[in-house]
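Backbone-to-sequence.
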């Protein structure tokens, strides 16, 4: 799908790049020639992921960094520049989430999610953005989710924070275009990862099956599908795309939105009967 050296000489930071979708994206960027920094709180997990990705011949620098802390984020930026010289791409992928009835949340439960998702994304964008401004260009890609604009019960802290990241994406796409910085987002539907499933899909309630049934394409996303989309959006091939949110969800959110979509449950016989009745009544007129 892509030329083997598509991302050669590009330095890319992926926050939350040691697990799940972040790791899959980092892996793909590495295969295509990028220099990588993967950053999150757990160094042992980052080291393991870095070793795996290095097998593709990629240079990978794992950096321990809690995105909630601006000093740690600044240090991550310094280390990246010291190692690779400049930063071309930032993928804001780190996130926290859990399901909870909102009335059972504490202020601390709301804060922890907003701190990671919204403040963390801002901290990284600010620190890396200053470097990009110095270097006269770059690309920021934010990983959000479709409920950033629909909202969703039971994940209110995450929905509020991702909505904030969506607004930040569109705002900076305009404000920082003058520095040749493009800012875009991807809104994934459900992609199985240990991190998300452990916190959002408790086993034993048939939730996974019900989630799948909501998706018109009838399946969850494959990591490679998301990694390829991310690759396109950070590559020079998408150099005129700025301020866009690309949904990759098999049609899931639109199925929930269309008022008559539930009619796909009607059996064929019902449609035949309605057509016959319609013909009969038009003959009478
Ligand atoms: C209610 C909870 C809770 C839960 C924690 N809290 N878990 N409240 N239900 N399940 C509350 C605690 O009571 C505490 O409140 C506050 O949150 C902080 O909790 P800690 O455990 O001290 O936080 P911390 O150790 O920093 O861990 C952060 C975390 C954790 C977000 C809670 O889950 C984590 O590390 N997550 C990172 C990875 C992740 O979440 N991945 C999923 C991304 S998937 P008090 O009041 O006591 O301070 C995703 C998919 C979206 O985003 C779309 C899917 C389709
Ligand atoms: P995941 O594996 O749990 O990824 C979350 C990552 O964020 C972890 O690597 C975690 O690493 C890191 N992280 C959490 N708190 C952090 C902090 N304070 N500082 C730095 N890093 C932190 O889950 P995932 O499913 O791959 O999610 C990746 C992204 O996709 C998230 O933005 C999520 O909202 C989005 N998304 C996922 C789905 C899905 O179905 N999977 C759907 C829509 C959107 P540490 O624990 O080491 O810090």
């Amino acid at each position: 799908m892509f030329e083997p050296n598509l991302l050669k000489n590009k330095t890319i930071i992926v926050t939350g790049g040691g697990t799940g979708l972040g790791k899959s994206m980092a892996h793909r960027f590495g295969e295509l020639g990028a220099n990588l920094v993967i950053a999150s709180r757990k160094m042992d997990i980052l080291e393991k992921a870095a070793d795996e990705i290095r097998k593709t011949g990629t240079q990978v620098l794992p950096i321990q960094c809690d995105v909630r802390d601006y000093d740690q984020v600044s240090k991550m930026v310094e280390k990246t520049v010291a190692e690779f010289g400049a930063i071309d791409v930032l993928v804001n992928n780190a996130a926290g989430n859990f399901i909870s009835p909102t009335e059972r949340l504490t202020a601390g439960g709301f804060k922890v999610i907003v701190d990671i998702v919204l403040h963390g994304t801002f901290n990284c964008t600010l620190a890396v953005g200053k470097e990009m401004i110095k270097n006269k260009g770059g690309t920021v890609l934010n990983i959000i989710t479709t409920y950033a604009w629909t909202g969703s019960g039971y994940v209110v802290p995450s929905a509020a924070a991702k909505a904030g990241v969506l607004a930040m994406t569109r705002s900076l796409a305009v404000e920082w275009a003058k520095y040749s910085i493009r800012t875009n987002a991807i809104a994934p539907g459900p992609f199985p990862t240990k991190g998300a499933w452990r916190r959002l899909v408790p086993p034993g309630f048939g939730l996974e099956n019900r989630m799948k049934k909501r998706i018109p394409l009838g399946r969850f996303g494959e990591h490679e599908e998301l990694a390829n989309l991310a690759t396109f959006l950070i590559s020079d091939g998408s150099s005129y795309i700025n301020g866009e949110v690309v949904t990759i969800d098999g049609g899931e959110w639109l199925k929930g939105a269309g008022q008559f979509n539930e009619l796909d449950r009607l059996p064929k016989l019902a449609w035949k009967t309605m057509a016959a009745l319609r013909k009969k009544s038009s003959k009478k007129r």
